[in-house]
From TrEMBL:
<dbReference type="GO" id="GO:0102919">
    <property type="term" value="F:5,6-dimethylbenzimidazole synthase activity"/>
</dbReference>
<feature type="domain" description="Nitroreductase">
    <location>
        <begin position="18"/>
        <end position="183"/>
    </location>
</feature>
<dbReference type="InterPro" id="IPR012825">
    <property type="entry name" value="BluB"/>
</dbReference>
<keyword id="KW-0560">Oxidoreductase</keyword>
<dbReference type="InterPro" id="IPR029479">
    <property type="entry name" value="Nitroreductase"/>
</dbReference>
<protein>
    <submittedName>
        <fullName>5,6-dimethylbenzimidazole synthase</fullName>
        <ecNumber>1.13.11.79</ecNumber>
    </submittedName>
</protein>
<dbReference type="InterPro" id="IPR050627">
    <property type="entry name" value="Nitroreductase/BluB"/>
</dbReference>
<dbReference type="Pfam" id="PF00881">
    <property type="entry name" value="Nitroreductase"/>
</dbReference>
<dbReference type="InterPro" id="IPR000415">
    <property type="entry name" value="Nitroreductase-like"/>
</dbReference>
């Protein structure tokens, strides 16, 4: 149906969003290429400023590239832990913040800040909208993956400059996200950080009127 969707579809969409979680615990079973390709189609459907489509993806497959990314995370995570003390440090140390060792698919996502596509429309006044466009595309990809039964984890505890060097990306590519994709060990509609007591969801949307 084009342009109009009924209550059953809206309920399923809400359910899809509710069960979309940041997954860190994966089974090591491979993801079929056809399934991954269906998920990746979400990028082509995503909006982008000036229709610039600035997303650039690298599938991190080699043993050396994955080892470098994992070491990057472990070093950066150790630095992040040092910021906390007491009970918060103990809780942080218990958290599983990456599924990089188990996830069968690793994707490094970048924004091409030098792209000429879109002729600078919109990005000329707010250049950061290119990066925001990439984040929006990732959100669609995340939902597409969940609809296939896959889990996705966004690893943010990384040194972006080091990762860009290790993957030898062009100078104009800005690192946005390191994504782990695979079949989750379990599914849950409550974020793991909430289950572990790190933080709770806000009880209501913060919105003001002017």
């Amino acid at each position: 149906m084009q342009g109009s969707y009924g209550p059953e579809f809206r309920a399923e969409l809400l359910d899809l969003m509710r069960w979309r979680r940041d997954v860190r615990r994966f089974r090591t079973d491979p993801v079929e290429a056809a399934v991954l390709d269906r998920c990746l189609r979400a990028f082509a459907l995503a909006p982008s400023v000036g229709l610039s489509e600035p997303w650039r993806l690298i599938q991190v497959e080699s043993e050396a590239a994955r080892a470098a990314a994992i070491d990057n995370f472990e070093c950066t995570n150790a630095d992040a832990l040092s910021v906390y003390d007491g009970d918060k440090a103990a809780l942080y140390a218990r958290l599983k913040l990456s599924g990089m060792r188990e996830a069968p698919v690793h994707l490094a996502v970048f924004c091409d800040e030098d792209t000429v596509k879109g002729a600078g429309l919109g990005a000329g006044t707010m250049a950061e909208t290119r990066a925001w466009s990439v984040v929006g595309a990732i959100s669609l990809f995340w939902l597409a993956a969940r609809s296939e039964g896959l889990g996705l984890g966004w690893v943010s505890i990384l040194d972006p400059d080091r990762l860009s060097r290790d993957l030898a990306v062009p100078a104009g590519w800005r690192f946005i996200a390191y994504l782990c994709l695979g079949w989750p060990e379990t599914t849950d509609d409550t974020p793991e950080l909430e289950r572990e007591g790190w933080e709770a969801r806000a009880p209501a949307l913060i919105m003001e009127r002017r």
